[in-house]
Write a structure and sequence with these properties.
Layout: E1 2-4, H1 7-15, E2 23-28, H2 34-46, E3 49-54, H3 64-69, H4 74-83, E4 88-90, H5 94-97, H6 111-114, H7 117-120, H8 122-139, E5 143-147, H9 151-163, E6 169-173, H10 193-198, H11 201-214, H12 220-231, E7 237-245, E8 260-268, E9 271-280, E10 284-286
Parallel strand pairs: 1-4, 2-3, 2-5, 3-4, 5-6
Antiparallel strand pairs: 7-8, 8-9, 9-10
The protein binds adenosine monophosphate.
Length: 287
């Protein structure tokens, strides 16, 4: 496993890819878990060269304290990456990614960038799009692996790839969940024991939405009510939003359509979690 810690060395290494075969890239903020592992294993299995980045991107945090508090364990991450036989790990320093003179940002616009996560934090959208663009240029992957858990991130990156004519294939993998249904996330370990106990209500609520649709419910408002009502079983969970929307544009629906994303964000104390389920072609569920 080759560890690269400067953008210059990453650029130099990526120049050599051309002859090496397909490059699969998994961007992460570290503190790796089973969700990351699934992306890494697919990149390893499907590409000749697998690259994983570990970079907690300060640009995408609205509140600086959240950036400082984001969980980090580089030693443990490197052990996991070694186990998974990753070829290249890129762990740049903040000051090398964003030197003092840094002043160019990628700013997605329109409903997709301005709704839900974008309404709560425009900084997240701008910071995430900017870092991904930089990572794409530095690493020059053929395929980028991302998880369904972050549905709006996927939609924004898909649009970015299209708009900026980036020659990268986006490969989306299903959300990996703990045995009680809670989607794995780096922030999960920040939950108290009590919060961790009730957190699976989020996924259960999404499944109740699915069940309602399967029984014929079409009204988005009704599905949202079902979800709010289930999560209300725990006073420790505050829902930032629940949306029933188009998975590509994030325009909210009045009625369930062929392709429908049910997505939510919740706060449990200071910890913010997102989750979603996706209906495609009116029959195929991605849960
Ligand atoms: P992060 O380190 O949180 O920025 O996530 C890096 C990548 O892992 C993103 O593409 C996420 O969507 C993906 N990811 C995070 N959690 C999960 C999960 N539980 N299942 C599948 N993918 C995930």
């Amino acid at each position: 496993m080759h560890i690269i810690s400067t953008p210059d060395e990453m650029t130099e290494t990526a120049r050599g890819w051309l002859t090496g075969g397909t490059v699969g890239f998994v961007p992460t903020m570290g503190y790796l878990h089973e969700g990351h592992r699934s992306l890494i294993q697919s990149a390893h299995a499907e590409c000749e060269i697998s690259v994983v980045s570990l970079f907690v991107n300060p640009l995408q945090f609205r509140v600086h304290a959240d950036f400082l508090n984001y969980p980090r364990d580089r030693e443990r991450d490197l052990r996991l990456l070694e186990q998974e036989e990753v070829d290249v790990v890129f762990l740049p320093k903040t000051e090398d990614m964003y030197p003092e003179t840094f002043s160019t940002y990628v700013m997605p616009s329109g409903p997709l960038a301005e709704r839900l996560e974008g309404a709560i934090s425009p900084e997240y959208v701008r910071g995430m799009a900017t870092v991904m663009t930089k990572l794409f240029h530095l690493i020059r992957p053929d395929v980028v692996y991302m998880g369904q858990k972050d549905a709006q991130q996927i939609a924004i990156i898909r649009q970015l790839i299209r708009d900026l004519t980036v020659d990268i294939h986006l490969r989306i993998l299903p959300t990996v969940r703990d045995s009680d249904g809670l989607a794995w996330g780096s922030r999960n370990h920040q939950l108290t024991v009590e919060q961790r106990k009730v957190a699976p209500l989020l996924y259960q609520a999404l499944l109740l939405g699915k069940e309602a649709i399967e029984k014929g419910e079409r009204q988005a408002q009704r599905i949202k009510e079902i979800i709010y009502a289930h999560v209300a079983h725990s006073p420790s969970i505050y829902l930032d939003y629940v949306a029933v929307c188009d998975p590509d544009t994030f325009v909210e629906y009045d009625e369930v359509a062929e392709n429908t994303l049910i997505t939510l964000a919740a706060k449990l104390g200071a910890v913010r979690l997102v989750d979603n389920i996706l209906l495609l072609k009116g029959v195929q569920w991605h849960i």
